[in-house]
Amino acid sequence: MDAQEPLFDADAAPPGHADTPPGVDAPLAERLRPRTLDEVAGQAHLLAPGKPLRVAFDSAHLHSMILWGPPGVGKTTLARLMAGAVVSDFIVLSAVLAGVKDIRDAVERAKASRRQGRATVVFVDEVHRFNKAQQDAFLPHVESGLFTFIGATTENPSFEVNAALLSRATVHVLKSLEAADLSWLLQRAQALLIAPPLADAARQRLLSFADGDARRLLNAYENVANLAARDAAVDSIGETLLEQALGEQLRRYDKSGDQFYDAISALHKSVRGSDPDATLYWLARMLDGGVDPRYVARRLLRMASEDIGLADPRALRLVVDAASVFERLGSPEGELALAQAAVYLAMAPKSNALYSAWNAVRDLVRSDGTRPVPAHLRNAPTRLMKELGHGRDYRYAHDEAGGFAAGENYLPEGLPRTRFYEPVPRGLELRIRERLAELRALNAKAGKPG
Description:
Blueprint: H1 28-31, H2 44-47, H3 52-59, E1 65-68, H4 75-85, E2 89-94, H5 100-115, E3 120-125, H6 132-136, H7 139-144, E4 148-153, H8 157-160, H9 163-167, E5 170-173, H10 179-192, H11 200-210, H12 214-229, H13 239-246, H14 258-272, H15 276-288, H16 293-308, H17 314-329, H18 335-347, H19 353-367, H20 383-387, H21 427-445
Helix pairs in contact: 10-12, 11-12, 12-13, 14-15, 14-16, 15-18, 16-17, 16-18, 17-18
């Protein structure tokens, strides 16, 4: 459960201490914010006894770190608790709003705290949004130990954080909360709020809606609980009330059930069937239902390889570009790029020849023994290997007529000649098919079977 605003200052009680609980008017997510590590849901790979953050917490010896994970999994909470472990001055910066001046102010505050014998933790939320100059501003102070740097990000630090800063901080990967973690949080929330009980179907749908995000779960439950509490006639929270409370946030779309996979299937089959209108419809249904557009992009990449392949190699590149555009623009603007890619796939010539060939080759490799590489195809970088015959009698194709060594064999000896790849007479594969027929004719003339 993350936040961007400062949670306390140097004169306040250290974070995680039970003497400063939030008021009853605070949002449910804030009231349930963990005040000890034992109250943190999930992240056992980091917080269980002997794990990295538990060791750092128990020893009160912090190291600079970057917490990488999806929203609502506890990045800010962990930073707050870690700072409390060493009774530190805790400075929060939001990379969305802060600039170099704010960083300088944080440095001056850390220097003042050091003169008073206090440690400082500087927490930067959404650190990937800082540019190179802003990230570089932290380097000398992290290096000197003026403060402990903790960054939080939802993006891959390898791509979004400067290498110099990354080398000075340990990356800890936080995971989406599992169903058991969310259920535990929901039980705590139900005990805190006065509201009718949740029906089983509504409970499961609420957990699915949360999608691993604690804040999303608690905010949604608080909304529906408040609505139910205002109606004396409501004795149980069901799916109808859940939809009424959440409105457009909760679509008639079960992302963990059959409807989700049915919609994916419909989109894939519409593309394969070259129907752009149906393709757009199912794409819109999926996005409107809350499916992560990045997942849609991955599915489109699969379609470009499985159903189009070399009939139109541009399809794969276009989907990659569309996914990149979405990463830059986000929703809703970036969704248009995905729609453009989907329609292109629907209208492209279709071929599953490469998909079928790849599956056939994989089946053969799994079932066949480990055949040695023929001597003439082996690498020969040393004198001994050359003396052993590696690379001997290899025919360099560029020196042959037409750049093709007719009759040469590139498969292991004894392997039955099999035609895995048979291009279809559509799109670019029509020309590939013609070229392959020419090469096979030259091989046949040279006495090579198949």
